[in-house]
């Protein structure tokens, strides 16, 4: 009789833990990073060297909808300083 109660308690605890952890795991967004930023620029025929990698190292702010990803101002400044077009800099920095 005690083992049945123990099993029920353990099952309840397991379900409660799963219910609490599952939304956190499922809702974790996939964030872009330096490599995505650099790859974006590479595919647009920019030379990806130390300056691009440094600029792409400034992470974007990942905001919820409707705002979406907000590029780092420092990333934008550094990419534009090495003659990356504005639209490409914004798109790349959003991936950082």
Blueprint (SSEs and pairs):
Layout (H helix, E strand, L loop, with lengths): L1 H26 L6 H9 L7 H7 L4 E2 L6 E2 L2 H9 L4 H10 L1
Antiparallel strand pairs: 1-2
Q: Radius of gyration, Cα only, in angstroms?
A: 22 Å
Question: Uncertain runs with pLDDT below 50, 5 residues or more?
Answer: 21-30
Total count of helical runs of at least 4 residues: 5
Mean pLDDT across residues: 81
Query: Shape from CA axes?
Result: elongated
Total domain units: 2
Number of strands: 2
Class of secondary structure makeup: mainly alpha
What percent of the residues sit in helical stretches (DSSP H or I)? 55-70%
Order of helices and strands: HHHEEHH
Distance between the termini: 58 Å
Which sheet architecture does the biggest sheet show? 2 strands, antiparallel
Describe the structure.
- With 96 residues, the protein is mainly alpha-helical.
- The chain folds into two domains: 1-30; 34-95, no CATH class.
- It contains five helices and two strands.
- The chain has helices at 2-27, 34-42, 50-56, 73-81, 86-95; strands at residues 61-62, 69-70.
- Strands 1-2 form a two-stranded antiparallel sheet.
- Strand 1 (61-62) and strand 2 form a beta hairpin.
- Helix 2 (34-42) packs antiparallel against helix 5, helix 3 (50-56) runs antiparallel to helix 4 and helix 4 packs across helix 5 (86-95).
- The protein is elongated.
Keywords:
96 residues; mainly alpha; two-stranded antiparallel sheet; 64% helix
